[in-house]
Amino acid sequence: MAQDELFLGAIAEFGPALARLAAAYEADWDQRRDLLQDVKLALWRSFAGYAGQCSMRTWVFRVAHNTAISTRLRRRKLGLVSLDELADLAAADDPEATVGNAHVLARLQAMIRRLKPPDDQVMLLYLEDQDAAAIAEITGLSAGAVATRIHRVKQLLSNRLRQAPGQQGEAA
Fold first, then answer.
1. Contact (Cβ atoms closer than 8 angstroms) between residue 43 and residue 60
2. Domain coordinates in residue numbering, the chain
3. What pLDDT band is residue 35 in, cutting at 50, 70 and 90?
4. Of 165, 113, 122, 168, which Cα lies nearest the Cα of 146?
5. Which three-class secondary structure state does DSSP give residue 115?
6. Is the whole-model pTM more than 0.70?
7. How many angstroms separate the Cα of 100 from the Cα of each of 76, 97, 103, 106, 149?
8. Which fold has domain 3-75?
9. pLDDT in tens, 71-103
10. Phi, psi for 115 (deg, rounded to 5)
11. Where are the beta strands (DSSP E) in the chain?
């Protein structure tokens, strides 16, 4: 298949997931739109070298996440934390914690945005219903490492979401 055909097929199949990926990495609408364009450009370019070495889904998510991480690291060198530092974070941009799923989702995305790669990448793929084996193939981590990261991050995020906004810096 030609590069353009592969690209158009991938956008048709994975377009909504790519938009969610951009929204998960970028809170600002303009930066989100720019990131989505960067991802699409990188994806189109990548199909010049795609020879079916992995599934289309794996290829698309690998290119998209690598592009998002590179863009994110260029834009936000400050403020990212490791998984181990997440428990000690004080929530600086906590939306109203007590009303509606939209607020919970916003809080969850804000917390995930604060994670360093590959922890953020693993959780975003997990939220896209990818299993540990697929996430491992996309990220280059082992399936066991992926499962461990998912468990640890889910536990930390769950604890942070249950806390009142003013208590977030107090938990260990």
1. yes
2. 3-75, 83-167
3. very high
4. 122
5. strand
6. no
7. 29, 8, 6, 10, 27
8. Rna Polymerase Sigma Factor; Chain: A (1.10.1740)
9. 877 766 555 555 555 555 444 454 443 345 566
10. -75, 150
11. none
Q: Who contacts 134 (Cβ-Cβ below 8 Å, separation ≥6)? A: 57, 58, 61, 125
103/133: higher pLDDT: 133
Of 28-42, 57-71, 93-107, 110-124, the poorest mean pLDDT is in 93-107
What's the Cα-to-Cα distance from 113 to each of 5, 72, 105, 142, 148, rounded to whole Å?
33, 9, 12, 23, 19
Q: Which amino acid is at 21?
A: L
Cβ count within 10 A of residue 88: 11
Residues recorded for the chain: 172
